[in-house]
Amino acid sequence: MENSKPVNIYSFIPVLCLAIVLFSPLFPFIGKAYSKDATLDKKFASIEIIKLAGFLPPASHDPVDMDGIAVKLSDLKGKIVFINFWTTWCPDCVDEMPDIENLHKKLNNNDFIILGIDLKESKKKVKKFIKKHNLTFKIVLDKKGDMGRAFGIRSIPTTFILNRKGGLIGKAMGARNWDNKQSIDLFEYLLENY
User: Fold this and answer.
1) Are 138 and 173 within 8 A, CB to CB?
2) Confidence (pTM)
């Protein structure tokens, strides 16, 4: 029987550190989105947003807008993106819609996008809802629920926040007051820093 030397696992640490440094540009969750940002942590905590760090999940079908045109989240890179999963029959979703609309009006610019993703409802029903509530932010239809499944939606409303690299940085489960000082401050901070 051959004598084998035990492997010193500590000898791999420098190699692992070098690999992380070399390959970090390939992974958006390594770096600023995953770094300690006490200001962002405080702003997220003030409105009960869970901090995330990761990639967008793949979906088998892209949601479509009211004209039937597919909307690809990858096309929104370079912007801070607010994604809200909702339905017309959900009371909490309906309650937060005016706040989302007001947030859209206050921060509406080329660098901030609100995307409402309706889950598995008809175009006719959603169009009627948009008209009734005078909504002007982008609303798309997830007709088969593919996007909802990809994001692991278990309750609605659920909101995700993406940084300019297209990485997931925050998640809010349940309705929020998106039209208050804390929310506006959060998104202004993200626009300046992420």
Assistant:
1) no
2) 0.80
